Amino acid sequence: MKVVILAAGLGSGMKSLSDMTPKSLIPIANRPIIEHLILNFQKANVSEIIILVGHLKDQIIEFLKTINLPSMDIKIVQAKNYEKGPIYTFYSAKNQDIEEDFILCPSDLFVSPKIISSLTQYHKKGSISIAIDSSKQHKQGTKVFTYSQSRLNSQHKFVKYGKVSGFNNRVLNKSDAFGVAIPLTICSPDIFDYVEDAIAQNAENVTSALNIYIKNLKPLNYFDFPNDYWFDMDNLNDLLVVNQFALKNNITPINHISPLREGKIKDMKLPGINLFHPTTEIIPPIIIGKNCYSKIKSKIGPYVSIYDNCGLEANSEIKNSIVFGNSQVLEDSKIKNTIIYKNNIIDVNLS
């Protein structure tokens, strides 16, 4: 099954950061968001991915050249009119030889590979299947309304599934919202007919095409995943939340430094820390990339990810932050709840 990833958007929710880097390349626990996504699709035995690019596309193209996955065929396509909304980006995939059902998702989705593999397993060919979350932990998002519910016994557990009557407030039958949509959808190729109709109605989002699909009495099924992790990153606060989650759950590159206990560097035996001053204090969970250094009385953590080629100057402290590669924490600075991109410090207003 092919995958179509929407990676063309402006990322306006990321404020000034979106002027410097595409959202899909923001590192979560020292791995760009889109790389997390690609690796999870690989775990679900996906072998072909189409990535639709637009905003700062050259950065994405250059990064994808560094991914070495012989079993994965990655194709990059320039999206047209992506500034108008994700539905226009999606429509650019129409002429990419998609003849069978395929997976659709945005590039800023951080999702459990279990959801991907389970949704592909439950999907019925020729229909559309979406993943939803009925738990109360995800209160925000696209509301999904349903009009039928059943239980599927799969691998000794029950999975709720049924029919979707609409998204947000556009429903065929009145009902309460059952949950919110996880932005992971398996589509049949005829979805592009409904995308055309939605664009003709000046729609911006793919859910508008799905509502038209439902209105034409086409089968749109949901499968409920209330117990598996997923995050849709819309703003800077979301980035720090997901970074915390990834660090706590060790969803990190294996070749980076990730100390397991609190203490000073002089009391730790870790590979790759010869450039760290012995007085540097570590408070896990953190992760540190390659070729980084620290100077006297610096302090790192908790919940800090530092990418490659970064430095912490003397008496500096940093916690709950994401540090891009080739960045520096200045001497005597006390930093928390930030995203650092080279010489730019972006404060995050936590909510």
User: How many E strands?
Assistant: 26
N-end to C-end Cα span: 38 Å
In round numbers, the mean pLDDT is 92
Instruction: Give the helix level as a range of percent.
Output: 10-25%
| Contiguous runs where pLDDT drops below 50 for at least 5 residues | none
Oligomeric state of the chains present here: single chain
Strand content: 25-35%
CATH superfamily label of the largest domain:
Spore Coat Polysaccharide Biosynthesis Protein SpsA, Chain A
* CA gyration radius, whole angstroms: 22 Å
Write the CATH fold name of the largest domain. Answer: Spore Coat Polysaccharide Biosynthesis Protein SpsA, Chain A
What's the CATH class label of the largest domain? Alpha Beta
Reported CATH architecture of the largest domain: Alpha-Beta Complex
- Globally, the shape reads elongated
| Structure classification | alpha/beta
Helical element count? 7
Number of domains: 2
The biggest beta sheet reads:
8 strands, mixed
How would you explain this protein's 3D organization?
With 351 residues, the chain is an alpha/beta fold. 19% of the residues lie in helices and 32% in strands. The chain folds into 2 domains: 2-234, Spore Coat Polysaccharide Biosynthesis Protein SpsA, Chain A, CATH 3.90.550.10; 263-347, 3 Solenoid (UDP N-Acetylglucosamine Acyltransferase, domain 1). The chain has helices at 33-43, 57-64, 86-91, 113-122, 191-200, 206-215, 236-248, and strands spanning 2-7, 27-28, 31-32, 48-53, 73-78, 102-106, 109-111, 128-133, 143-146, 150-154, 157-167, 170-171, 177-187, 220-224, 230-232, 263-264, 281-282, 286-288, 293-294, 299-300, 304-306, 311-312, 317-323, 328-329, 334-341, 344-347. The strands form 5 sheets. Strands 16, 17, 18, 20, 21, 23, 25 and 26 form an 8-stranded mixed sheet that branches. A 5-stranded mixed β-barrel has the order 8-13-9-11-14. Strands 19-22-24 form a 3-stranded parallel sheet, with no helix packed on it. Helix 5 (191-200) crosses helix 6 (206-215). The longest helix is centred in the last third of the chain and has 13 residues, at 236-248. The protein starts with a strand and ends with a strand.
